[in-house]
Each structure stands twice: as C-alpha cells, then as structure tokens.
Write a structure and sequence with these properties.
This protein is α/β, with parallel strands linked by helices. The protein contains 14 helices and 6 strands. The chain has 2 domains: 42 residues, no CATH class; 281 residues, Deoxyhypusine synthase (Deoxyhypusine Synthase, 3-Layer(aba) Sandwich). Helix 8 crosses helix 9, helix 9 crosses helix 10 and helix 12 packs parallel to helix 13. The radius of gyration is 27 Å and the shape is globular.
C-alpha cells in the first residue's frame, strides 16, 4: 500500500540546526580547486581531546627516589593504570582489605620472589595463589637453590622432568598433607620447614608458612613434571588442590575493597578465579567493588576476560587493569612504588 504524500515529505530542519549547518558551511575548506576534501571544520576549542599537556610526564629530578619512579610515568594509558594499581594496593593495605597475588611459574624463574616475600612480610600481600609449576620452581629454589631445566635438550635425551629429588620431596609432602586433610600450599610449606630447606628465605611457600599467610596451589593433573613419577598420587594431588580451591573461594568472599593481581598465569589461575567468583556470587555474597589487574609479557585471552573484564562488570565501582611487561621489570617497579608510598616519604 502506497504511503500518503504527507508521510513521504521530508521534515524541514529546525532553525537551530540550520544555523549550525550555515556556520559549518562558512568554514568549508577550498584550498584546492575542484571537490573539497571535507564538508566542514570546527574549532579545536570545541573538540574533546583525550591527551593534554597536563597528562605529560614531568621533568626528571636527580632527587627523585627509586620508589618515586612512577611519578615520571605520564598520566596516560598504562602509565595512568600503573599508578591506579599502586594506589589501590596502598589503600587496601591501609584499610586492612585483602591483596591477593596469583602467580605462574615464570614469575619464580625471573628471580622476583624476594620482592613478593617482602610484600608478604609487610602484610601488603595477604594471600598467594600459584600454579603447580610455580610450586615446583619454588620448592627447588628452597631446597637446592636452583631451578629450570633446558626443556629441548632434556626432552631429546628422554630426561625432561625426571629429576628424582624434586618429585620425591613434593609427592611425599602432598601425600602427607592428604593424610592430614591439608591443602597443597600448607603441606609444601610445612615440609620445607621440616626439612630445614637451605634457601627457605627465598621461598614463597616457606615464607607463607612462616608468616601464616594463606597459600593455595592449583594444579591440573598431568601438567606438572612431578606427575610423571611413579610415586605421584592422583588422589592426593587432586584432594589437596581441591582443599586449596575451597580456601581460595573463602578468600574471594572477603574481596570487597581489595585487589587481585594475576601475574604470569595464562590459563589455570584465571579459570580458578572465575570459578571462585561464580561460587561466591551463587551464595549471594557481594564481593565488589575491587580492583583486578593482569601483569604479563603478553595479554592473553583468559586473563583479560576472566580476571580484568568479566568479574569487574558485576556490580558497580570495580576497576580492571592490564599492564604489559616483563616480570623482572614490572614486579620491582610495583614493589618499589608500593613500599615508598607506604613509607610516607
């Protein structure tokens, strides 16, 4: 059915709109003959700009302390986000709110454990979650002062992951913890202290046990080299890690006003965190607002979705941050900035 003439007639623009159009036309560019490149222009004073000189980095001052290095960061993009993360952690510490670090194995291998141990000792980091690989590297550092093998060479020779002492110590500790109905993190920390590990002061598990800081270890069966050995018990590994997951969920229940930082775990811990969030929300517990950050050399899918984005969209007021960089640079920067702010200097 054909529409009426009235419905086909285009409405006339309002007088105010016509005024804006005339104003825009008066600024048309005719720098070159022929067709104009643009239809209209307008003043930069009317434009919304995302960057201003107010956001630029200040001049370097020789008196600047190491812990003030973040003051040189421009208040733009990652520079701004880094400062937001520092302030969130400092605020959580001052208000006695939780700060949970979740770390993958590469974090231990880059040698930054002493800095995280310092944050634990100062009650800045209130809980630590780690993958099975992080636990393995940490135990080897504590017991023998060295870790990390040449995978390609060892794989070709048929000996990758076959170190007897590591598997024997950890599988025995996990088995003993299973018999005591303890979690894996507590079991490993207790075993290191019982063994009087020579380098325990460099160990995250040993430090958490000594301090009484919750440590949870989250594994997937078959992902860690100690699972290859005949003394590995799937029952013990599964149950002790399950105990730690339950502990982790209880920590997330009290997350409100706190901070979660995922460092170097691309799959396991982001998935664990998401399931903990789901469990807490299922109970009807309000855990927001909080700050969630992911620090890694590459921004992977799961940390971005399961740590930075999805959980922070629940409720209001939460903040998601992503910082890209090497652990051996980012963790010292973060630690120095936090400790300097807390010192009141």
């Amino acid at each position: 059915m054909r529409g009426t003439r009235k419905s086909r007639v285009r409405a006339r623009p309002s007088s105010s709109r016509m005024g804006r159009v005339r104003s825009a036309r008066s600024h048309r560019t005719h720098a070159h003959p022929g067709r104009a490149l643009v239809a209209s222009e307008f003043s930069i004073s009317l434009r919304k700009s995302k960057v201003s000189v107010d956001n630029f980095a200040p001049d370097f001052e020789p008196s600047l302390a190491c812990g003030e290095i973040h003051k040189l960061f421009p208040d733009i993009l990652a520079g701004r986000d880094f400062k937001i993360l520092v302030e969130a952690i400092v605020s959580a510490k001052r208000h006695k709110r939780p700060v949970i670090f979740m770390i993958g194995g590469h974090v231990v291998k880059t040698g930054v454990s002493p800095l995280i141990i310092q944050l634990i000792g100062e009650d800045v980091v209130t809980a630590l979650a780690m993958t099975g690989s992080a636990a393995i590297h940490d135990v080897e550092i504590a017991m023998w002062g060295k870790t990390s093998e040449e995978v390609e060479e060892a794989l070709e020779d048929g000996v990758f992951g076959m170190t007897a002492e590591t598997a024997r110590f950890m599988n025995k500790a996990i088995g003993s913890g299973f018999e005591r109905s303890e979690g894996m993190g507590l079991s490993l920390g207790k075993a290191l202290h019982a063994a009087r590990a020579p380098f325990i002061e460099k160990s995250l598990a040993g430090s958490c046990y000594r301090k009484g800081t919750p440590l949870t270890v989250h594994v997937a069966i078959g992902t860690d080299v100690i699972h290859q050995h005949p003394d590995a018990s799937g029952e013990a590994i599964g149950e002790t890690s399950m105990q730690d997951f339950r502990l982790f969920v209880s920590l997330i229940e009290r997350l409100r006003g706190g901070v979660v930082v995922n460092i170097g775990s691309a799959v396991i811990l982001p998935e664990v965190f998401l399931k903990a969030i789901a469990s807490v929300r299922n109970k009807g517990i309000r855990f927001w607002p909080f700050t969630a950050a992911n620090i890694d050399m590459i921004q992977h899918y799961r940390p971005l979705k399961n740590v930075v984005e999805r959980p922070t969209k629940i409720g209001k007021g939460s903040v998601g941050i992503k910082l890209t960089g090497h652990h051996e640079i980012m963790i010292p920067l973060l630690t120095a900035s936090i400790m300097h702010r807390l010192s009141g200097a």
